[in-house]
Amino acid sequence: MRLHTGIRAAAIIAATTLLAAGCTSGDDTTSSSPTGGSTEKAEKVDLTFWTWAPGMDDVVKAWNDANPDIQVTVNKQDGGDPAVTKLLTAIKAGSGAPDLMQTEYQKIPTLVAADALADISGAVDSSIAGHFADGTWQSVTLGGDAVYGIPQDSGPMEFYYREDIFTKYKLDVPTTWAEYADVATKLHEADPKAYLGTFSATDAGWFTGLTQQAGASWWGINGDAWSVDIDSAASQKVASYWGDLVEKGVIDNKPMYTPEWNAALNDGTQAGWVSAIWAPGVLAGNAADTQGKWKMAPMPQWNAGDNATGNWGGSATSVTSQSKNVEAATKFATWMNTSQDAVNILVAKGGLYPADLPGQAEALSAPPAFFPNQPDFYTTATDIAKSVQPFTYGPNVNVAFSAYNDQFGKAAESKKASAFLTALTAMQKATVDDLLNSGFTVDE
Amino acid sequence: MTATLAPTKPPTVVRTTTGATGPSNKRSTLSTVVLLVGAAYCLLPVAWVLVASTKSAGELFTTFTFTPSTHLWDNVQDLSAYRGGLFWRWMANTALYAGVGALLSVIVSAMAGFGLAKFSFAGKKAIFNVILAGVLVPGVVLAIPQYLLLAQVGLTNTYWSVLLPSIISPYGIYLARIYAAASVPDDVLEAARTDGAGEARIFARIAVPMMVPGLVTVFLFQFVAIWNNYMLPYIMLGNDRLFPITVGLSGLLNQGASQPAMYTAVITGALLSIIPLIALFLLLQRYWQVDLAAGAVKA
Amino acid sequence: MTVQTPPRARRRRSGRFAPYVYLAPAMTLFALFLALPIGYALYLSFRTVKVSGLGLGKGARTEVWAGFDNYARSLTDPDFIDSVIRVALYGLVLVPVMLGLALLFALLLDSKRTRGRGFSRVSIFLPYAVPAVIASLLWGFLYLPRVSPFYYVFDKIGWDAPDILSSQWVLFAIANIGLWGGVGFNMIVIYTALKAIPSELYEAARLDGATEVQIAWRIKIPVVTPSLILTFLFSMIATLQVFAEPMTLRPLTNTISSTWSPLMKVYRDAFTRDDIYSAAATSVIIALATFALSFGFLRLVQRRAFSQENS
Q1: CA-CA distance, C155 to C161, in Å (whole number)?
Q2: Average pLDDT over every residue of A386-409
């Protein structure tokens, strides 16, 4: 983005004056060596890496110790949506973006649309695709030839429950959603303060994963047009199911990740949690005293005997379009996410579920410390991970997700099953309107 | 918007004809109680942070809110150990942004306020009103354009990017103008000029000392404003070693779904970050006088 | 920044430039860091991005002129209109209560008959030192039934208290945070004005047997009216710009939408939807409305409480 000459001149004058005043500026974002290709091997390269995943300091330290020529600096960011805006603003401004960025899978189309990510297909080894499940690999290629990142972790969804409370009230672990509703009702009847779960209107990713399990895929590409299918039969099934449970009052309607929810995890009034593979870390942080009381089971299914799940969370490591060291950055990203050493650190220090299939066996040999009572935790999880259903994200996930917060917030507050369906329709409309307004071709 | 306001003369005293000469210094229990209730209301959340920061992560959600525990020191140590003492770096950054920013702001505001109060010149009213209009534009909106402009000169992700935009303060200029008008008598300036003192000398040796109490208020005001500003540093800074405390703590809270929010660290951090501010306030207690209107009488 | 000392002979002539020298740093900084970004935002408010095809890859997005489209969309957006109404209500709740309490506390501080004045003054002013984001986090803990001491007490005395974050009450929950953070500052402003009243003024009334309430009502309040008006004005502007409190409380409840206040809508458009263009248009509307309200209000009260300065 270019500014008018006058504005630039004024700004430059200001800057010159200030620099003359003799203050040192902060660390520069990117390396000063603009050279690409083979000549840079001899020179030292400094890379910056924006991330908020845990354990990154440890894995980067291991890399830096072994690679004096390519030094990586971790800059820990806020994990919220604004981190993406921050990157996009830097892209618009033409400077200020890091070399590497943690990119959640659902944000990749948005970032690619804003030309924020570098296509690293020329810098990666062609065999790398074999390290990942097809679905995971597709989320960094968007189905094309380009490669917009190296997958780091994924979040296949599972059902977590308090084994002690289930035993106490003689509840069976639900294998279908119909059973889940029964168990929720029984539990709430046995202890009116207890719930088997909550419908969280602040976690769009969670709801997306639930619809993914039911067979929804909210976006699609049709030639040169996008299609939006948020208000599909599959999503409607999920929305009205949860709306019904909330209306009956057997499921809570308060958001997750609040101090209130933490307290409920601690005192056992949230006796179950439909979550993802990274749940042990969250539970350990929020309710450390309940260690060993939780168990993990496959998601309840829509039809008995089915074997399907969705994804909640997970991200890749991408190289930004402003990086002057794409090759070095790609080298680091590849090592971090596909070498056994790095994957071991990611699991041990970060508690991530690595996307790298060959590295899983060794890295996941022991169950999470929070689940000493479930030695086969990762064996079960790896089986579940194979049943993640396909799903396509579009270029305005942020719009859809913010519409989810607002619309389902209203619905959850009203405690009416019908309001959940209305919310879904409103989400669909907001998403399509936004695409049309930006000039996208939308296949309706 | 105009602030060239002057109050009317105080109304004449209304004499009452009630005969009783009431004992004026009798203590009133009611007014004491009302004021103490107000004080309690204001202290309650602060007391809460104090108690909460003594709890371990588990206790925070399991024990009664106002039951103190013994983990304050552990919490401080954990927070200090976070990423190699990054928290203290954020504290130092905040002190730099708010301290240096407010100090520069005071100098700039004092000059401008003095100029506006003690001189009459073409465009005075227009300049003042334009500066005041700056109050109307919310900072959330300005952060992105400010970023795009600073990026043109390569100043983003530096201390400058937060410091420079923080220096200009319409409120500060407004207050400084009032203090200059109220506290610096015209005849003193005239006498100094007759003695041949230059403008720099008049400002530094005569005007500033007279304005000091007011300028301390401007300093406090701007210090808190910069301290409070979240959006500007958030968007300007990519390097977490340059973050101020607000941006840093908010990052600990927004860790994404797959991470537990670090409530204990955030609460301990909030407590530690408020302490210097409270100390500053107590230290400068006698300067707490925000005179928004009175000075304009003489302007 | 140093101001050149003019030679004696040129003293009178230099006087003409002196005010501009004093104003130069402020004006330069103002131009660079406020006027220029405002102008840039204004420019952006008339622009928009158009995408071609799937919008993926280089060159798929171009910035084009949008005319008044962004403005029209903002003004007809029901979410925006709702947010304006909500904030008007919020202001109606908050500002009178905040200034009323600030005045009351200031009067009590000014009365020799009150005990514990030093302690109370410090305590009530203290919240001003707490950043809004942190204040909202603290109150958030105090609002959530399971972790709040209030609900614990209510529970013990058997009172079924309503959820303060439910849709009927959430406005008050947010206003309370604004009140907590703002009452002390306004109290200090009014207290400063009260201290400036010469004590003879009311000692005489006191000797004549006027009660403290009569003195407050007939002497003190009229004198601090100009301060009250300005605190009202600044509180009104702050109300229109309310942002940090609802933003921080939002993840805790279903009842605060992403467009709860006008500024939250600006934030959502700019930071969540990456649409700086409509965010800019909405903020121009907010700034103009703030200006019109402030100006209108000053016009309204000026005749009553102020005499126009002629300079």
Answers
A1: 8
A2: 93
Q: Domain ranges in chain A?
A: 43-154+313-363, 201-247+395-444
> How close does chain B come to C73, measured CA to CA in Å?
18
| Percentage of chain B modeled with pLDDT above 90 | 46
CB atoms B35 and C114 under 8 Å: yes
Place of tokens 């073409």: B122
| Structural domains of chain B sorted by starting position, each given as residue range(s) with its CATH number in brackets | 96-265+280-298 (1.10.3720.10)
Tens digit of each residue's pLDDT (9 = 90 or more) over C195-216 = 888 888 888 888 888 888 888 8
Of B238, B260, B261, the CB nearest to A29: B238
CA–CA separation, A132 and A136 (whole Å): 6
Q: Would you call A21 helix, strand, or coil by DSSP?
A: coil
**Which DSSP symbol is given to C309?**
-
pLDDT digits (tens, 9 = 90+) for C45-99: 999 988 877 777 667 788 889 899 999 999 999 999 999 999 999 999 999 999 9
pLDDT value at position B293? 63
Residue ranges per domain, chain C? 77-305
What class has domain C77-305? Answer: mainly alpha
Report the C-alpha gap between C142 and B47 in whole angstroms: 12
DSSP character string of C166-197: STTTHHHHHHHHHHHHHHHHHHHHHHHHHHTS
> Considering only CA atoms, which of A324, A311, A248, A222 is closest in space to residue A274?
A311
Mutating which of B28, B36, B168 best tests the C interface, going by the most C Cβ atoms within 10 A? B168
Tokens of C231: 């605190």
Residue B48 three-state SS: helix
Are the Cβ atoms of C254 and A201 closer than 8 angstroms?
yes
8 A C-beta contact, residue B261 and residue C132: no
Q: How far is C252 from chain A (nearest CA, A)?
A: 6
* Residue A28, pLDDT score: 39
| Dist. CA B251–CA B238, nearest whole Å | 12
Query: Is-contact C287 B136, C-beta < 8 A?
Result: yes
Which of A439, A444, A92 has the alpha carbon at shortest distance from C54? A439
What is the rounded CA–CA span in Å between residue B130 and residue B218?
A: 19
Which helix or strand (DSSP H or E) is residue C50 part of? Answer: strand C47-51
- In chain A, residues with a C-beta closer than 8 Å to the C-beta of B61 are 259, 262-263, 265-266, 286-287
Using pLDDT thresholds of 50, 70 and 90, give the confidence band for residue A19.
Answer: very low
**Hey, is C49 helix, strand or coil?**
strand
On whether the CB atoms of residues A394 and A359 are closer than 8 A, the answer is no
Cα B274 to its chain centre, rounded Å, is: 13
Contact C54 A11 (CB under 8 A): no
* SS3 of residue A159 by DSSP: strand
- Which CATH number does A43-154+313-363 carry? 3.40.190.10
Beta bridge partners of B125: none
To the nearest whole number, what is the mean pLDDT of chain A? 89
Instruction: Give the confidence band of B15 by pLDDT, cuts at 50, 70, 90.
Output: very low
Query: C54, A202: Cβ pair inside 8 Å?
Result: no
User: What is the rounded CA–CA span in Å between residue C192 and residue B75?
Assistant: 40
pTM beyond cutoff 0.90 = no
Q: Residue type at A317?
A: T
Interface-testing mutation among A228, A405, A431, A436, with chain C (most C C-beta atoms within 10 A): A405
Is pLDDT at A298 greater than 90 in this prediction? yes
Q: State how far the Cα of A38 lies from the Cα of A345, in Å rounded to an integer.
A: 30
